Amino acid sequence: MIVATSTLAEQRTLLENISWSTFETLLKEIGNNRGYRLAYDEGMLEIMAPLFEHENYKSNFGNFIVALAEELGIEIKSAGSTTLKLKNVKKGIEPDNCYYIQNEPALRGRQELDLETAPPPDLAIEIDITSTSLNKLAIYSALRVPELWRYNGRVLNFYQLVESEYIEIDFSIAFPFLSVAEMVGFFDRTRTTGEIALLKSFRTWVKGKIQQL
Question: Does the residue 93 lie in any domain?
Answer without folding.
Answer: yes
